Sequence to fold (678 residues):
Amino acid sequence: MGDRENLNRLRWRCTRRAMLEMDLLLGEFLDRIFPTLDPEQVDAFVTLADMEDLELWPLINGSRECTDAVQAEVVALLRNVRVK
Amino acid sequence: MSKLIVPVRKFDAVIVGAGGSGLRAAIQLSEAGLKTAVLSKVFPTRSHTVAAQGGVSASLGNSEEDHWHWHMYDTVKGSDWLGDQDAIEYMCRMAPEVVVELEHFGMPFDRTDEGKIYQRPFGGHMSNFGEKPVRRACAAADRTGHAMLHALYQRNVRANTQFFVEWMALDLIRDDSGQVLGVIALEMETGEVVAFHTKATVFATGGAGRIFYSSTNAFINTGDGLGMAARAGIALEDMEFWQFHPTGVAGAGVLITEGVRGEGGILRNSTNERFMERYAPNAKDLASRDVVSRAMVTEINEGRGCGPNKDFVLLDITHLDPATIMKRLPGIREISIQFAGIDPIKAPIPVVPTCHYQMGGVPTNYKGQVVADDGTPVKGFYAAGEVACASVHGANRLGTNSLLDLLVFGKSSGDSVIDDLKSGAIGLKELPENFADRTMARLHRLDTQTGGADVNATRLELQRTMQKHCGVFRFKEMLAEGVAKILDIEKAVARTEIKDKSQVWNTARVEALELDNLIEVAKATMISAEARKESRGAHVRDDAPDTAANPNGRDDIHWHKHTLWHRDGNRLDYKPVIMKPLSVESIALKTRSY
Fold:
């Protein structure tokens, strides 16, 4: 698959989730912050986006700590997303 | 001709949707040895069932005395007497059985010290026919829906259910007799269109909460099953009834729990007035959901909304001690910061009444069989969960009855498929010659459209129109204007244009196809709501007020009946509410008050 297909698939998996909160946050992240990530961070984001909502949400709202250093960087960026 | 263009795959049954009801139906079918396909736009455990946190109700009586008949009474009353009493009796009687079954599937319910399923009270659930609250809700912490999906999914893996993940069903296949012979679906990864030719088709596609601008529903809830059913000539029942939550974050829709007002949160208008004092002098901000929602809409409609468009009110907790907010309302501060850009310790949160749950849907009986207007089953077609209208929720759903609905009618629809196969009522019939023509024409139109309407802009216009003209509090003239506007938007939907014409992972195409479904639900909702000239449950009209003759605006003489909207000509029919339960006395009409 090419870049367009990969990005579209990622967009689908970020914006068709179980919880509205996650649709909004990950969709916004993809538009604004994803293009600025380095390759390691891109991989970390894809891993995070593959998680289920009730695993990912506690990382974002800070009730659970992220053990992987690069994932923690991306989670910090996700935490700063403002949906408007 | 269609067979030359569209590959055909044969199964005993296809289930569309892999949330709670789809997975529950699939267990029944796969464990009976039927070759079963489940289609889903997403991986099953990402279905919107996850968002249901509160619990599932069953009169187990683990903590105190309870009885299914009391549960039935509460559900009939909650429905404002629009629910069918045969289906409600069936659901409430089956509840203990399906909950214990779920426990055996591995559901990690909270437990009492004696090891029984722990039960807690929930709004509207009472003992002894409305006497006092009863502990009836079974939960797995605050992740009941999530845990339920995992238990059901694992059971399906064991039973060899075949999953087709990231597939979108596009249309039903029916023959000249009206029998349903399967669905046509699109695989997103390849863009390939495939026919699933089956003996039975079960719709478990969930609701369509995304027709409203402000909705707590995830983006996935685009009413695909309702759109497919309507295009195939199936009526949609009671679509004017939508449950709203008073406090969703304006713009985003994310829910702010009632607990915020419980802890002292105050609603204010643009003049900083605590307006609930005028509407509910005693209960004020803690009045019931419908009273608070109507007051908020009245403030906005009378020009006292906040923000540049005066289209929201404010939920103020700035007077609370920050330590209390952090301790008693964890998560609310993060939600407010991320989705409203507001730190609620420093400034009030913008909120609006927000769509939460769809009571209407594809008409079914309590066996999960889809029924025609005269009540006879549509051969080969079944539905369960939010897409279906059995009707157990009537004009208003009780909390925790939605997860129960998934389990009971997911199971009963599966059992009906098995019974109908055994009796010979259904079987594999030849596909009609041109079974895919309509679908392929729709896809061809989308691929070749030029100078058409933008999908996102059209969806947004649809959502704003529904919110403004058919929201939580409804007005005669606004509804009439709303009908004209929605029919205009329908014309734009018929000529949407996408720039991306590729096959592989073309999400623009999928979003345009979702909009084709949203518009059917929007028409059904607006037209049914405009026509129903009373207030009942969640459908509240300004011109049907509370009077001695019609308490709460409910007019049983003229409107104690189900609406049936037909796509063909936007025709409305009505059918009687089933007042006769299966085994007990009818619960007679009465004013609904708590």
